[in-house]
Design brief:
Layout lengths: L7 H11 L3 H22 L5 H16 L4 H14 L3 H10 L11 H6 L3 H13 L2 H5 L3 H10 L12
Helix pairs in contact: 1-2, 2-3, 2-4, 2-7, 3-5, 4-5, 7-9
């Protein structure tokens, strides 16, 4: 997890205080897994943090054992504060669906409609974080279908 410059001490204090309980440990694991998944997406071409957040939030929560939307929001707040990409996560935080976890994983469908940059990052995310395949076993198959359905050539732009 890439911590914002100057926030290292605050994040260290957060992790130390959370490591006292099982719920706190799960929250730290969620924050670190989720931020890692989004960083992986950015590293491999994704430019839209909210889109990457939507694609990865349920897998990161499941991997950490988080089942309550309120814990996801608590983790998002910590990321907004301490994570180097927190500013980009703000849009997801403001406009996320009200039922983050209870809506059920639509990871495969979201990867089908993802931007080209995020779509390019899908195999790397699945390789680095296999937990995404546990919550959405058809994740890579949906990616394969999405990539194979792209037109070979872009349609020419018309101008007047």
């Amino acid at each position: 997890m890439q911590i914002k410059e100057g926030m290292e001490q605050r994040y260290a204090e957060f992790t130390a205080s959370q490591n006292e309980t099982a719920e706190g440990q799960a929250l730290v694991r969620f924050v670190e897994t989720w931020s890692g998944m989004m960083e992986c997406a950015v590293k491999h071409g994704a430019e839209n943090i909210p889109e990457a957040a939507n694609l990865t939030v349920q897998a990161a929560a499941a991997d950490a054992g988080i089942t309550e939307d309120s814990a996801v929001i608590e983790g998002a707040v910590k990321l907004l504060e301490c994570w180097s990409h927190g500013r980009g996560l703000r849009e997801w935080y403001l406009y996320h669906p009200p039922e983050i976890l209870s809506a059920g994983p639509d990871t495969a469908l979201e990867s089908f409609y993802a931007s080209q940059g995020l779509r390019d990052a899908v195999p790397a995310i699945a390789e680095a974080y296999p937990c995404i395949l546990e919550t959405s076993p058809d994740f890579l198959e949906a990616h394969r279908i999405a990539v194979s359905s792209e037109p070979e050539y872009a349609a020419p732009a018309l101008s007047m």
